[in-house]
Amino acid sequence: MMRSRPPASLQAVLLCGVTWLLPSLGVAEETASPATAKSAVGEAGSQPVAAPVLDEATLIARLRSTTESEAAAAARKLGEAKTLTAQAALLDALAIGVSPKVAAAALSAVSSLRSADALPILELYAHHRNPDLRKRATQGLVALVVAPEETAPAAKPQVGKKPAKLVTTKPGVPHEELAPKIVPQLIASLSDGSAEVRQVAAEALGLRREKSAEPALIKLLQRKDTAAPEALGLIGGPDTARALGEMIGTVPNYLVTATLGALLKRSDFGPEPVRTEVVKMLGKMPGDQPVDFLSDYVKATDTDKESKARPSRAEAQKIIEQRTAK
Amino acid sequence: MTTAKTIIRSLSTLTLACATTMLGCAEAAFSVHTQDNDLHTVKPTVERIKSTKVASAPRSGTGHALVFVAVGPERRVGQAQASQSVEQGVVGYDLTDGKELFSVASDVRSRFVVSQGVVMYREGQSELVLRDVQTGTVRARVALEPGETLAGLSSDESQLYYVTRAKIGGENKSFLTALLPSGARAWRLPGQGSMGAPATWGQMVAVPYRYQNAVILDAKTGQELSRIRQKDEQIGFVRESKSGFLYGVGASGAALFNEQSIQGEKKAISYVQPQLGERVRVFLHWDGYRAEQTDFSAFDRNRLLWDVDAQGDKVRFADDQTVLHSYRFLFGMNAKDGAVRWAYANPRQTLMASDLSGDLVLYVAQDGEIGGLRKDSGSKVLSRRLGLKPGQNVIGASFDTAGLSAQGAELAKAEPVLDVLRGIIFDRDSSFLSVKSFAVQALGAIPGQGAASELVKVITAEGMPSEVTKTAGDVLAQRKDDPKEISALLVAALRQSYDFLEDKRPRGIDVLARVAQAVSAKETVPVLAERLLDPSTPTSALKDVVVALTKLGGKDALPPLRNALLVYRADPLFASEPDVLRRAGEGLLALGGEPERRLIQYVSMEPHTLPGLATHFRKVLDERAQPKPAAKPAR
Q: What is the DSSP letter of B60?
């Protein structure tokens, strides 16, 4: 974790105007002198990392290059550097404005740093007119309130197909104290015009098991958004199951099936009568997809005597037999 | 001797000329030598008008109020030929007895005029037909002279009149012809140049002539009685009124024919002009010189119904009211200030013809309904229905209903004006754009928060034409409501953003921002700041948001303006919309201090800034840096 210190120049831009700006056009070079560029990771006492191969001052200077690709590459390298100076330079660049391509690289780099100092900039760019920048800023916000293991890029499951592996919540959320501020923004992002932004927000809310997001996610499903099933499957309870029953016919079958399947995969989903209802609903859905979900459920409950005795499991087996016999 | 004879002959000629002039009767009608604006001829004519009592009775002589209706297939724009499968015809209807008198096939090509048992109109290309008002049977046919075009029809209690125009020997000629109800010609007068459609009053005929004159003639003899000339405007029409002849002055006013008319200037004559607001195109009467307006057309469905009262030399609109007819809507208008007193929206069907008759507003709808509203309240007091044949629609109608008055119980009370206006504005039919704009404008004169709230709804409505929303904004900005109420409405409306879940998108942000600025609604600053940095705010609306923030925001506007400028200064998205960031920078300079000046200087020098923006700010800063010229020392 990086040391938490607001970058002075960013504060100057956001809070106090720009009194520093003109005299310090070369501020990045000054603040990024090798003597002050310390490894924040090392300071925090965790596993020390190797010192950056590239000279940080050079990277910061390149961040100001008029060649976009050079500036974007510098932003990426600064993200890898994980130093306070690098972070300050990235946040400065975003605060005083760069081209969208460089901003994209800088936002990704800032996200990877998971610093609470980045919150104002991430909030600002989460409302950028460029959807890609909004997505990256939202990813940055997510990185602050979702454990790193959970936010690690994974192949997005094709909708209607079951995910390769069920993700489970793990401790180690970088800035849980920021959740009251960030979670409402993520819920608001479910209303964003960009499907990618909605996807990022929905995934994060699902991973966090944010019950407060359930109504918005149900609406998202009703709007036929493919980001909804997985997240809703991770959050939903009996009410969600009932709502899904009412959506059959108005929401595409593959989305309803995916959500039901995701609910059923959860070990904490219940109680048993609701689980049985979900199994029955899946049994009524057309195609091979429901059978796959039911088969997985039968396998997943083939662990102990108690699980094997579940009426929902028996119901699932019955449905599988009926449908595969045809 | 020869010289003396010549002198005597000259003097004789001069004496004759003088005598002729003084008598004023030697020149033929429409002579180019006739003196106009001559009090010696105008005054006797005005006296004659004043002393004549015109009976308020139908001209048909039947004593019954009659309506003559042209029916046929619906005429669509650009359709050259009417459908052959649907019968065209004319229907006579007796409003007094409430019965249809006749329905005959006929190719109607003009409005109808009525006199002593006959109804006359143009049938086909070049013929006038006179039919019996009771049976519809043909009494006479009058062929137009070869090469002549019908320019207008009129009638009084004893004769029928029509004007034709032709080009003869390369010159424009016109002819005014009087017919007896039998179809026999009473007289025919030629004139050099153009005559317009005639009008009659008290055994006199008036004709607009050569665009600047109005000529009054004796109806029996065709003798020209007097001629006036308007010096500063065109005379586009003549028509009758309760007080005599009226003539159109320019595009938007009319004057009463009286002694003042000889002044020939708008400021000196008995002139009257309705106040309907700037967005209403005033159509006071059919253009007397446009031959196509003798037939039924959109002008019959978009016009002002009015009459005047004369008090000495002054004229005013009767009861200070006019009635605006626009397609299927009728509005009772205060002629003084343009406020809507009542409004009537006919369900679905366009009103194809309308007229004032005493205290009634009469109309004929496209589906054959003949209706009547009280002129003072708009409540419905009359509704009859024609029996149309399959496929037939009403094309137009003319009324011979003098003396008809509102009797019996009201069939329907007039709806509240606000409800009718709301219905008009939100009607899904988008073809009535001008009516919608008019209705929005009319909302401006209705007091109370309800009307202001409706205006905000108009601005933010989905699919509302931009012209209408712009009008709503202008009207809202000019209202005299409680500023706090307006601010509250604006704040609520400006909160809107794109919402995928609710399928909502922001609308009218630019208009709302302009209104907020116009009414100095400082309470809107926080929401304007939100909209400036909201990606769903249309780019086209950002400039107005920035301008409003700059005007209203004070120091509170600095952070959003600064963020917008810095975050987007290098974004090519704004290369095509440079005004937004320019205004944001200028706003910072105007509202801020040295830090903001330095910020703009930085933006102007930093190489990533969009080139056009950097250049602009360099220029602005240079101009600011120029020393101001020293003030002149006081003397």
A: T
Six token digits for residue A15: 């809070």
Q: Is B554 left (phi over 0), alpha (psi -120 to 50) or beta?
A: left
Residues in chain A: 326
Q: Chain B: give the shortest CA distance to residue A170, in Å.
A: 30
Interval B389-434: pLDDT, tens: 888 999 999 999 998 887 777 788 888 999 999 999 998 877 778 8
User: What is the distance in angstroms between the Cα of B517 and the nearest Cα belonging to chain A?
Assistant: 24
**In three state form, how does the secondary structure of B242-281 look?**
CCEEEEEECCCEEEECCHHHHHCCCCCCCEECCCCCCCCC
Using the 8-state DSSP alphabet, how is residue B74 labeled? P
| pLDDT, average across residues A74-79 | 94
Mutate to test the interface with A, among B501, B539, B573 (most CBs of A within 10 A): B501
Instruction: With beta carbons under 8 A apart, name residues in chain B contacting A61.
Output: none
CA–CA distance, B173 with B151 (Å, rounded to integer) = 12
Is pLDDT larger for residue B512 or for residue A167? B512
From chain A, the residues in CB contact with B566 under 8 A are 13, 95-97
**What is the amino acid identity at position A281?**
M
How many Å apart are CA A213 and CA A205, to the nearest integer?
A: 7
ipTM above 0.90 for this complex: no
pLDDT in tens, B49-81: 999 887 789 999 999 999 999 999 886 655 555
Q: In the prediction, which pLDDT does B554 show?
A: 87
A residues 132-191 near B, CB within 8 Å?
134, 190-191
pTM value is 0.74
Query: B566 and A96 in contact by Cβ < 8 A?
Result: yes
Burial of B435 (0-12, 13-18, 19+ CB in 10 A): buried
State which residue of chain A sits closest to B531, comparing Cα positions.
Answer: A127
Q: In chain A, where do the E strands start and end? A: none
Q: CA of A125 to nearest chain B CA: how many angstroms apart?
A: 8
- The three-state DSSP-derived secondary structure of B468-496 is HHHHHHHHHHHCCCCHHHHHHHHHHHHCC
Instruction: Say how far apart CA B28 and CA B217 lie, in whole Å.
Output: 11
Is B570 in CB contact (< 8 Å) with chain A? yes
Nearest CA distance, B616 vs chain A (angstrom): 18
Nearest CA in chain A to B571: A99
Nearest of B511, B478, B483 to residue B338 by alpha carbon:
B478
* Percentages (nearest 5) of helix, strand, coil residues in chain B: 30, 30, 40
Which residues on adjacent β-strands are paired with residue B187? B178
Question: A150 pLDDT band (50/70/90 cuts)?
Answer: low
pLDDT digits (tens, 9 = 90+) for B427-455: 887 777 888 888 998 888 888 888 999 99
Entry field: residues in chain B: 635
DSSP one-letter string for B210-248: TTTEEEEEETTT--EEEEEE-SSS-EEEEEEETTEEEEE
Spatial contact of A282 and A264, defined as CB atoms under 8 Å apart: yes
Q: In percent, how much of chain A has pLDDT > 90?
A: 65
**B100 strand-pairing partners:** B93
In this complex, the residue of A17, A66, A198 whose CB is nearest that of residue B607 is: A66
Query: Residue A29 pLDDT > 80, yes or no?
Result: no
Please classify residue B10 by burial: count the beta carbons closer than 10 Å to its beta carbon, then call 0-12 exposed, 13-18 middle and 19+ buried.
exposed
Whether residue B390 lies within 8 A of chain A, CB to CB, comes out as no
Contact at CB, B500 and A223, closer than 8 angstroms: yes
Cα angle, residue B120 at apex, residues B119 and B122 outer, rounded to 5° = 145
* CB spacing of A98 vs B570 below 8 angstroms: yes
Residue with tokens 């309308």, as numbered in its chain: B354
How far is CA A186 from its chain centroid? 9
Question: B498 touching A, CB under 8 A?
Answer: yes
Probe site for chain B from A20, A127, A214, A219 (most B CB atoms < 10 A): A127
